[in-house]
Amino acid sequence: MSGVQEQFEIKFRLPDGTDIGPRRFPPASTVATLKETIIAQWPKDKEKGPRTVNDLKLINAGKILENNKTLSECKSPICDFSGMTTMHVIVRAPTSSKQSDKRAEKKAKDFRCGCAIM
């Protein structure tokens, strides 16, 4: 064994079609680590960039990746990370605390009325 750990080459496709990367990541890298890289490399000229890893979703082979999973755990027969892999980045729209409060109030009111939406 040469002791060299295999690395995955990944680029991140942003919502506007531009890319970050490609960059190489070890198989033990978590999805949260990938998201931190995206935040650090986010183009400064783009408005409404993500602030935290929870502002981002990564999609690979049609599957939303969980923050606590490693790249090794995300491998599947559909996506084996051979060659370069493109992951799609979804940015959650920021919500103001007023919007969040209104939603919470509406849910509580709907629940009290017995007309909770399922």
Automatic annotation (TrEMBL):
Keyword Cell division: no
Chief localization: membrane
Protein localization: Cell membrane
Record keywords, A-Z: Cell membrane, Lipoprotein, Membrane, Methylation, Prenylation
GO cellular component: plasma membrane
Domain Ubiquitin-like: 8-74
InterPro entries from the UniProt entry: MUB (IPR017000), Ubiquitin-like_dom (IPR000626), Ubiquitin-like_domsf (IPR029071), UBL3-like (IPR040015), UBL3-like_ubiquitin_dom (IPR039540)
Family annotation (CDD domains): Ubl_MUBs_plant
Membrane topology annotation: Lipid-anchor
Entry keyword Isomerase: no
UniProt cross-references to PANTHER family, sorted A to Z: MEMBRANE-ANCHORED UBIQUITIN-FOLD PROTEIN 2, UBIQUITIN-LIKE PROTEIN 3 HCG-1 PROTEIN
Biological role stated in the UniProt entry: May serve as docking site to facilitate the association of other proteins to the plasma membrane.
Stated name of the protein: Membrane-anchored ubiquitin-fold protein
Species name: Miscanthus lutarioriparius
